[in-house]
Write a structure and sequence with these properties.
The structure is a homodimer of 233-residue chains. Helix content of chain A is 27%, strand content 34%. Chain A is an alpha+beta fold and 233 residues long. In chain A, the strands form two sheets. Chain A has a six-stranded antiparallel beta sheet. In chain A, strands 1-2 form a two-stranded antiparallel ribbon. Strand 10 (228-232) of chain A pairs antiparallel with strand 7 (176-185) of chain B, so a sheet runs across the interface. Chain A binds a DNA duplex (30 and 30 nucleotides) through residues 7-9, 33-35, 43-47, 49-50, 52-53, 63-69.
Chain lengths: 233, 233
DNA sequence: TTTGACTATAAGTATATACATATTAATCTG
DNA sequence: CAGATTAATATGTATATACTTATAGTCAAA
């Protein structure tokens, strides 16, 4: 079984991919271990490791110590999508960016928000509603809640100059977040703010950002009709 | 400059992250090169390389040969989202899965589709409209075009047993795809198929899949109201 | 001033070796 | 036989070393 010389991890990866696609290694099946493959491919085990690790990261292989490596049963393809920072997104299209703060208040949040932010009852949060405009036209509006305890310095920031989004990205390190994407039907309020018709379908992103076991901020972005989020594998 | 002992790539990564977050290394700035960091951290260059490479993959660092490594100016966070295979998604929620083929025909596509599929004028494509049901209720419907030239064997497949989606995933290797996510307003047709009201906002995924410079298939998935796609960083 | 060749540099990668760690499988107990 | 112990094993990782490759920067020729 001398399978020729594979002297780069990319070539090893390509060969492994070929075998998976050609069904020489079928979904659910174990593939030979790293040492065996290294022997067959006439390369170092580290090279095989690099190739297989990369494939495992894309979800095509399942690897476990001692157990071995198998072809994923349901190869869930993973797409990486870039989280838009509104201003760069707009300016990247060559349009002018502007934003206005519609609401800025400190108050005890409704229970749904409180649950999502995991704050104690009675704690006041910063609430902001901001409209972002591209070439003067409504592009998206954000309904945002910020936990001031997790964000020192937010009180003294002028959020009408730099949007809350940008200020947070620039000043508060965060560890992770979770996102959901959905659609909603424009009601009276959305139609008014985004200058669209009531009853239009709108694209919505909800995002919570956390660090050190605290929710920093939770925002709901409602986009004007026609918005598309794009990505490729 | 002896920065203590960092003897795992994770610890090196953590320290680099800390310095970025603490603004010791500011956005846009070059950080010391791998050799210097290895010396400071008292570890091998390969270990530093591993740590920095991982951070570059998440978009937090920009690396270029000869130039060096710098902290990303606009740290575009990347989320990886799993592309749903409808049936597994539904069954994963403990609901029953069923699908019905509403339309199956071979015809010359409208110009918009033809452009997206990059086929020659006059070439017939396979057109399928499929409704997927969860616990008997409409969940999503797919309007799909398949390039038979790129998909040998599709003619002989019974797509009422195994959905086109599953059949393609199982039988045709693909190299990549591109996705777009958006919202639409339910018209008469969508309302009828999905058993919802006209004028409701619906979540839409459009996807083209390619391999070997050919577009294999292009599909538009329109989800019933209430659908959410979720991911985390 | 532009173009093109050259060079030094930093990341990228391959390899042998050694050890760590998770986890399965086998074995030993009570 | 159940449960604890131990051995075996595949992946995971660290290291020194050596070589490759892309490219920023420099300097000279056109």
């Amino acid at each position: 079984m001398s399978g020729g010389d594979f002297n780069s991890w990319q070539s090893v990866q390509a060969e492994v991919l070929r075998r998976i696609n050609a069904r020489e290694w079928k979904p659910g099946e174990f593939i030979p271990n790293e040492a065996e493959l290294a022997l067959e491919f006439n390369c170092a085990r580290a090279t095989v490791n690099r190739a297989l690790r990369a494939l495992a990261e894309t979800g095509l292989l399942d690897r476990r110590r001692k157990a071995g490596t198998r072809v994923a049963l349901h190869p869930v393809r993973k797409a990486t999508l870039a989280i838009p920072v509104i201003r760069y997104e707009i300016e990247g299209k060559g349009q002018s960016y502007r934003h206005t703060v519609l609401v800025e208040e400190r108050l005890v949040p409704p229970s749904g928000i409180r649950a999502r932010m995991r704050t104690n009852p009675g704690v006041k949060l910063l609430h902001l509603v901001t409209l972002h405009l591209a070439d003067g036209k409504p592009y998206v509006f954000g309904d945002r809640w910020i936990n001031p305890d997790a964000v020192p310095g937010i009180e003294s920031a002028d959020l009408s100059v730099q949007s809350a989004n940008e200020w947070l990205v620039a000043n508060i390190p965060f560890e992770g977040g979770d996102f959901s994407f959905s659609a909603m039907t424009a009601g009276k309020r959305e139609a008014e703010i985004l200058a669209c018709k009531e009853g239009e379908g709108l694209f919505v992103i909800e995002r919570s950002t956390w660090a050190k076991d605290q929710i920093i901020t939770s925002v709901r972005l409602t986009f004007a009709p026609g918005y598309r989020m794009h990505t490729e594998i």
